[in-house]
Amino acid sequence: MMHALPFRLSKKQHIVIRLLAVFAVLAALIASGLAVIPGPTPAQAQTQNIPVSPAKQDFSNTTTQNTYTFTVDADATMNSLDFNVTGNNFLLEYNLMVNGRSLKKETFSSSQKLPYSKTVSGLNSPLKKGDKIDLYLRFNFPREQGTVSITPKGTLGGSTPTPTPTPTQPTPTPTPTSTPDPSDKTVTPAAPTAVDPATAPQCVEKGYINIPGTQGVDYYIAGQKKPAGQHFFEGTKPATVKVTAKAQSGYQIASGATTEWSFNMSGEVKNCSGDQPTPPPDGRTFKATGHGFSLQGDPVAPNRPDTFTAKVGEDAKLNYITVRIKTDATFLDPQHYQLTVDKIEDGVTLQKRNVNIGNGYITMDVVPMKDGKQVDSAFLPKDAVFTFTNNLAQNKSLVVELDAYGTKSADPTDPPIISPPDGADWVHGRVANPQLPMTCGLRIAVVADLSTSLNYADNTNGFDESKKATNAFIDALAGTSAELGLYNFASTAPANVPGSTHGNNPPYISMLTQDGVTQAKRVVSNWNFNQNNSATNWQAGLQQVKAGNYDVVYFITDGMPTTSSTIKSKGIGGEFVQASALNDAIDAANELKASGTRVVPLMVDLTLGGRTSQRPVVTNDLVLKDAKRIGWQADPGQAPGLYYKIRSDHPKAIHANYINTDILVNLKMAYDGAGNQTLQVVERLPNGRQETITSNMSRWTYGTRDVKVMGEDISGTGDTVRITNYSGLAAQMKSIAQDLTKKCGGEVIVKKRIVDEDGKVLSDSEPGWEFTLSANGQKVIDPGNGELVTQWRKATSWREEDKGTARWGIQSETAQDLTLTETQQAGYTLFKRDGKNAVCQETRDGKTTSIAVQNDGEFGFKVRMNEKDKVLSRVSCVVDNYKTPEATGKLTFKKAQYVDGEVVEMSDLGGATFEIYPAKDGKPDYSAGKPLYTIKPGQESIEVKTTGTFFLVETKAPNGLNLLPKPVPFEIAFDKDAKKYRVSTVGNHPQLKASGSGDAMLLVVADTASGQLPKTGGNGVLVWALGGLVMAGGGALWMRRRKS
Fold first, then answer.
1. 245 or 164: which carries more pLDDT confidence?
2. What is the pLDDT of residues 649-700, one digit of tens each?
3. How far apart are CA 735 and CA 694, in angstroms?
4. Of 516, 522, 537, whose CA–CA distance to 448 is shortest?
C-alpha cells in the first residue's frame, strides 16, 4: 500500500535535492579516485640542468666510506638527480643529501659493479645558491680510484617545480651549465689537478687531468678549450702539459688569481685488472647500527667471510649490544659466535646474556662487565673496532645484525681554567663546576670533616651532628635509585676507615633497599674523633672519591685547608691555613670537576671565644706562604724558609681560641688583637742570615681569604652552602636530599618476577626481560643520550643492586599517560593478578599508594603518572610471568568480504595470501628477511607453541577486494585456567576478528570491495562521512525553509 507524503515538493525543491545528490556523489567519486574533473592543464616549466661545482670529482680513496660535496651555483627546484661513479670495484650503498638532510638512501641487496649510474627522481627539493649536495658512497674495498659526477635537474630561479621527469641515462661526464650572476663579475679559477700512473698511490691505467667547473671561467689544455671533467693524456712519452684559465664574456679574473698550471705526465700505461678484488662473498651480510653514537659496519672482506667488523665513529659510552644471527645451519650453538672489541675502558670485558635460540636464528645481548659485575656503561674510544667471528663451517648463509646502544661521551679535551673569583694571582685557577644532572638515580658522595674543631662546636658536638645530618640525608634518599658513597677526612683520608666506603667494590651503596639504607647508616656510625688525625686536609678528602665516578660530592667542613701532600713534604704542620694546602685542594677538586663531578661545599660556621664571653664567628683567616711553626722561645732552623711563633694566652688574643680552651685557632683574630705579642714571623735567608719580618706581612702571608671564597675556590661562584652551626646541618642536608629525590618524581620502574601457575613467587628479580615504554606520542622519555623521545625499550638489569628492574626517566611538569608493553620470552606467559597485567604503585612525598592499571592487549598496560606542583610522582610496577605448561594450539585463518553490510566467508581464502612477522617496538620485525609463516590456500592453519605479539600482512587480496591497508597486530596468550593458547586482536581493527582457543583459534580477515573504500594511502571513510554530512546538511536546510 502506498502512503502519500504529508506535503508536496515544488519544482524548485526537486531541483535542489537533485543537485545536492549529484554534488555528494561527485565528491565521493573524486575523493576515491573514480572521477576526474577536467580543468586547464598547468603550464609545464622546462626541465634544465642545475649548475653545480665541481660537476665531476676524481677520488683516490683510502677508506670504504666517502662523502663527495658539490656546491649549487643557482637558485632552483631540483626534481631529479643523475649521478655516475666510475672505478674498478663494487658499490654497496649511497646516500644523497642536501645541507645534511637525506633525500634518498639505498643499500643494495647485491653489490653494484662499477661504473654505476643512477637517476634519483621525485625529489621536488628547493635549492639555494651555495647549498651543499653531498653524495655518500660506500665501496666494498678501501683502495678505490675513480670519478663521481652529478647532474641535478629541475627548474632554475625557484620557479614552479615540474612533475617528476622520466628517468634518463646520466651523462658520464656532464658539462656544468654556466649561469652568469650579474651581481658578481669577478671570479677566481679553481685549480685543475692531474693523476699520473707513475706517481699515483694506487694503480692507474692512464694519466689524466681534471678540469674543474668554475662559473665564468673557460679552461684550455695545450691551447684547446676543454669542458669540466676528466681528460686523458694520450701521449706515450714524458711531456709537460700546460693548462690555462680565461674569463668568459662579462666576467673578469680576480686580481692575483692563478691562471696557468703545468703538469709533468710520464706517458706510462698500466694494466690494473690485477688490483681488482673479488666481490663480496655470497651468503654473507653484516649490518651494524649505533643508537646514540656513531657506529659503521665494514663490508665483508672476500678473504675473511667469517669475520665481520664495525668501527666506532666517536668517543662513546656503551650500554649494551643486541646481536641477531640468522643462518641456515641446522646446529645452532651460541659458542660458535663471538663478539670482541679491541679498545674499551680498562678492566671491562664483553659478556653474552639473554641468549635465545629460534628457528634458524640466535639472538643475544652483549653487556659490559667489570670485576665480575655488569656496569651501566663503559667508555668506548673513537676508532674502537668490534669484531664478530663465526667458526661454524655449516654456515653457508649468515646474516648478522648488531645494534649497539649508548651515548656520545663527553668531550675528552681538558676544560678551560677559570681565574679565582677575586683575581688573586697566587691562587690556582679552577675548572667550571658541572651542573647537577636533572635525572633520578644520581651517584652521590658525602665527605665529612672529622678534624679537631668538631669537638668544639658551639653548644653541640660536631661529630654527633654530622652523623645525625647524614642519617637524615640517607633517610630522604631511601627507596630511590641513588647510589651513596660515604667518606671522611682530617689530616689524612680516610681519618676513620670503618666510617668510609673508600676501597669497597663498588665504593657506593644503593639506596633502593632497606639493607642498603642500614648499611649506609652503619658506616656513618663510625664517624668519631681521632686525636692523632686532627688537621684539615681538603686535598685528601677530595682525592679519595675519584674512583667512584660520582655525579656530585657534598663536602662538609667547618675549617679551612691547613695541610696537604705539598705541606707535608715540606715538613710543615697542619695548624693554620697554608697557600699550598689550598692550591692542592683546588687541583684535587679540578680533577673531579673535569671528569663531570659537581663539588658542593657545605661550610659550617666555626664559633670561637676561648675563655671569654665573646663568641666571634670565623669568616676568614690569614693565608701563610707555607710557613713552619716553631716554639715561642725557639730559634728557626738552618734551612731557608719562613718560620712563625704563636702565643695563645695573651689577653687580647684569647678570643681567637676554641671555646673554653687555650688552643689558638685563628691567626687573623689573634694578630688583629695583640699584634706581634701573639704572632711573630722570621725568615731564614739562603745566606744563613735571619730576619724578623712580622711587620712586613707581604713577605709571609697572602693576606686574608674568606671561608666562603675558599669554598668557591674548590667549587664555583655561588656554589658554596653556608650553615650557621652544626645543629642546623641536619635540616640543610635533608632539604638537599629532598630536592634530589624530586628528580625521582617522573621515574618509571618495572620489576620482573617469575612465579608458578598459582602466582607464588619463584624468583623476585629476573634480568634480561625487555619492556617498551610509550608516552602517548609525547617526547618526555629520557633515554639518557640528551634527547627526549616518545618511546624507549629497556631490559631489566643484571646488576645486583637493582637486578630484575628497568627504569625510565620522565621529564615533564604535567601528568602523563604511559603504556608499558612486555616482550614475551619463549616458554613464558604473563600472570595476571586480579585480571590485570601488572600491579603498580605511586610514590610521592615518601608515601606509597596503589594506582589503577588498565590492560592494553595481552602483554601491555597503561598507567597514569600524576603531577603535583609541577613535580611528577614515581611509578613502580611489578610484572609476573610463569613457565607455560606443555601445550600446543592451532590457529586457522579465514578470508571474508562484506556483502550488504554482512561478513561472508570465502572458501580457500578467496585466493588471498598472508605473511606473519614477529613484533618489535610496536612494529613488524622484518629483520629475519622472511616471515615466520606464510598463509595461503591449502596452508590455512599454523601450529602455535609460544605466546607473543605478531603482525599479519596481506600480500595478495582476492579479485575485486582491497588489501589490508597496513600490517595488523594480533596476540597469542596462554589461558592458565583452561591451559590453552588463545588469540586476540590489538587495538581497533574492525577488519580483523579473533576468537577461540586451543586448536580452535580463528582469525577472520574481512576485506572490502574495490571502490567501497580507498586502498592504502586513500582518504578512508572520511570522504563518505563528508558526503553524508553534505546531504544531511542540505536536507536540514530545506526542512528549515519549509517550516518557515
1. 245
2. 999 999 999 999 999 999 999 999 999 999 999 999 999 999 999 999 999 9
3. 46
4. 537
Please compute the mean of the pLDDT values over residues 930-940 and round it to a whole number. 90
Q: How far apart are CA 267 and CA 237, in angstroms?
A: 5
Show the cell assigned to 937: 590456500
What per-residue confidence (pLDDT) applies to 107? 80
- Residue 452 buriedness (CB in 10 A; 0-12 / 13-18 / 19+): buried
8 Å CB contact between 1004 and 992: yes
Do 472 and 730 contact (CB within 8 A), yes or no? yes
Distance CA 307, CA 299 (A): 10
What are the grid coordinates assigned to 621, written together?
A: 683567616
User: What are the grid coordinates assigned to 363, written together?
Assistant: 639472538
Span 818-836, pLDDT tens digits: 999 998 887 888 898 998 9
List C-alpha distances in Å: 684 to 84, 623, 644, 677. Answer: 83, 19, 11, 21
Taking Cα atoms as reference points, which of 775, 838, 863 lies closest to residue 783? Answer: 775
Strands 747-755 and 874-883: parallel
Per-residue model confidence (pLDDT) at position 282: 61
Q: How many CB atoms lie within 10 A of CB 112?
A: 18
> Is residue 787 packed enough to be buried (19+ CB in 10 Å), middle (13-18) or exposed (0-12)?
exposed
Q: Is 810 helix (H, G, I), strand (E, B) or coil?
A: strand
Residue 652 to residue 705: CA distance in whole angstroms: 22
Give, as one character, the DSSP assignment of residue 283.
Answer: T
The model's confidence at residue 1041, banded by pLDDT at 50, 70 and 90, is very low
Q: Indicate the burial class of 856 (C-beta count within 10 angstroms; 0-12, 13-18, 19 or more).
A: middle
C-alpha 109: how far from chain center = 29
Q: Which of 175, 168, 171, 173 lies closest to 80 in space, CA to CA? A: 168
Residue 269 carries which side chain, given as an amino acid letter? Answer: V
- Percent of the chain whose predicted confidence (pLDDT) is above 90: 39
* Interaxial angle between packed helices 11-31 and 1022-1043, expressed in degrees from 0 to 180 and rounded to the nearest 10: 170
Report how far apart, in Å, the C-alpha atoms of 797 and of each of 33, 783, 791 are: 53, 15, 19
Cα-to-chain-centroid distance, residue 485: 27
pLDDT for 585-622, tens place per residue? 999 999 999 888 999 999 999 999 999 999 999 999 99
CB contact at 8 A, 168 and 94: no
Instruction: Out of 3-12, 146-155, 442-451, 529-538, pick the least confident.
Output: 3-12
Phi, psi of 86 (to 5 degrees): -110, 160
For residue 640, is the peptide bond before it cis, meaning its omega torsion is within 30 degrees of 0?
no
Q: Which residues pair with 89 in a beta bridge?
A: none
Q: Is 94 left (phi over 0), alpha (psi -120 to 50) or beta?
A: beta
Q: Which of 962, 943, 965, 961 has the alpha carbon at shortest distance from 953?
A: 965
Residues 6+ apart with CB under 8 A from 619: 706, 707, 708
808's grid cell = 625510565
Rounded-to-10 torsion of CA 499, 502, 506, 509: 30
Q: Which residues of 358-394 are buried (b: 16+ CB within 10 A; e: fewer)?
A: eebbbbbbbbbbbeeebbbbbbbeeebebebebebee
What confidence score (pLDDT) does residue 793 get? 86
Backbone angles phi, psi at 272, to 5 degrees: -100, 10
**Burial track 631-670 (b if 16+ CB lie within 10 A, e otherwise):** eeeeebeeeebbbbbbbbebeebbbbbbbebebbbbbbbb
Spacing of C-alpha 397 from chain mean position: 33
Q: Is the pTM of this model over 0.70?
A: no
Judge whether residue 280 has pLDDT over 60.
no
The model's pLDDT over 489-513, given as tens digits with 9 standing for 90+, comes to 999 999 999 999 998 888 999 888 8
Highest averaged pLDDT of the listed ranges 59-68, 859-868, 976-985: 859-868
